[in-house]
Write a structure and sequence with these properties.
The chain has about 55 residues and is an alpha+beta fold. Helix content is about 40%, strand content about 20%. It is built from 3 helices and 3 strands. A hairpin with a 2-residue loop joins strand 2 and strand 3. Helix 1 crosses helix 2. The radius of gyration is 10 Å and the shape is globular. About 15% of the residues are buried.
């Protein structure tokens, strides 16, 4: 499954989707611009949140 077909993304996948570093996504989570939830040892972000950044 590619990143383009997923509804939930890891921090790394979210960064790859929009072409920024993982640290940028982490900063956005810390600033409250994105909400991430723990999932096992990872944190995941809903894809709609990434898409809403550009609306």
């Amino acid at each position: 499954m590619t990143v383009n077909n997923k509804d939930f993304l890891s921090v790394t996948e979210a960064s790859q989707l929009i072409g920024v570093s993982r640290w940028t996504i982490q900063r956005m989570i810390q600033q409250g611009r994105l909400k991430a939830v723990p999932f096992g040892r990872k944190r995941i972000v809903a894809r709609w949140q990434i898409e809403n950044l550009f609306n």
